[in-house]
Amino acid sequence: MEQAIKIVSALGLVFVEAGSLAMTDEEKREVTYASEAAPKHITDAATFLMFRDGTFQTIKEGSNNFTCLVLRNPNERFEPACLNKSAVESVLPTYEYHTARLYAGASEQQVMDEIGKKFESGELPTAKTGSLVYMMSQNNRAYREDIKELISFPPHQMYFMSRLPDDVFSLENSTFTPGSPFVFQAYPHMTSLIIFTK
After folding, report:
1. How far apart are CA 100 and CA 77, in angstroms?
2. Are 70 and 77 in contact (CB under 8 A)?
3. Digit-coded pLDDT (tens) for 51-67
4. Helix, strand, or coil here: 40?
5. How far, in Å, CA of 40 to CA of 62, rounded?
6. Which three-class secondary structure state does DSSP give residue 192?
7. How many structural domains does the chain have?
8. What is the C-alpha separation between 84 and 65, in angstroms, rounded?
9. What is residue 126's DSSP assignment?
10. In whole angstroms, what is the distance from residue 161 CA to residue 92 CA?
11. pLDDT tier, 165 (very low <50, low <70, confident <90, very high otherwise)
12. pLDDT tens readout for residues 81-135
């Protein structure tokens, strides 16, 4: 019996290694980029996704409750992100829709209007309380729609929740320094409290 368990375990290891070897160079690079988002003890066992053909597709299966990916758009946004289980269930659908529509040629305002309508019709969820997204890469580049510029954005963590009134936290004057909080209210159906990290 013990010998059989060893054989099964060995076969499982072979299949895992074979799956890893089967990744393309592009997928391996994506895993490397996405791994910048969170501490190593999280990314070592995370699932990894890659955006292609209009959806986020799994390129590496993990064994913990985190999923990592890189958020991009046609304006060269580059933000590695690792989402916990609650965020995968309730924030990722919006990320995916947002990304797909921008690559399809829709404007940012058009997409936000669509997201609001899809939430109202029950097609998109709001964020579950406890939804966490790590974005702790030193290489974050975010596109600011208001000034039409790509900017470097500090490493941070995002704590999502259902949409709150705009002035509920009174944190408009964030310094964007470690420990400084900031409220992200871009999505019409979700609020995120951002905490900047080192």
Report:
1. 14
2. no
3. 999 999 999 999 999 99
4. helix
5. 13
6. strand
7. 1
8. 6
9. P
10. 13
11. confident
12. 999 999 999 999 999 999 999 999 999 999 999 999 999 999 999 999 999 999 9
Asked if 66 and 42 count as a contact pair (C-beta separation under 8 A), the reply is yes
By the 8 A CB rule, do 174 and 153 touch? no
Highest mean pLDDT, choosing among 2-11, 113-122, 179-188: 113-122
**Residue 55, token pair as written in the block:** 């959806």
Share of the chain above pLDDT 70, in %: 85
165: amino acid identity, one letter: P
Between CA 50 and CA 179 the distance in angstroms is 30
Q: Which two tokens stand for residue 62?
A: 């993990």
Above 70 in pLDDT, residue 23?
yes
Confidence grade of residue 46 (pLDDT, cut at 50, 70, 90): very high
DSSP bridge pairs for 71:
79
SS3 state at 159: strand
Which domain does 42 fall in, by range? 2-196
Strands of 2-140, DSSP E: 47-52, 55-60, 67-72, 78-83, 131-135
Residue reference for tokens 């990722």: 92
Both tokens assigned to 153: 């954005």
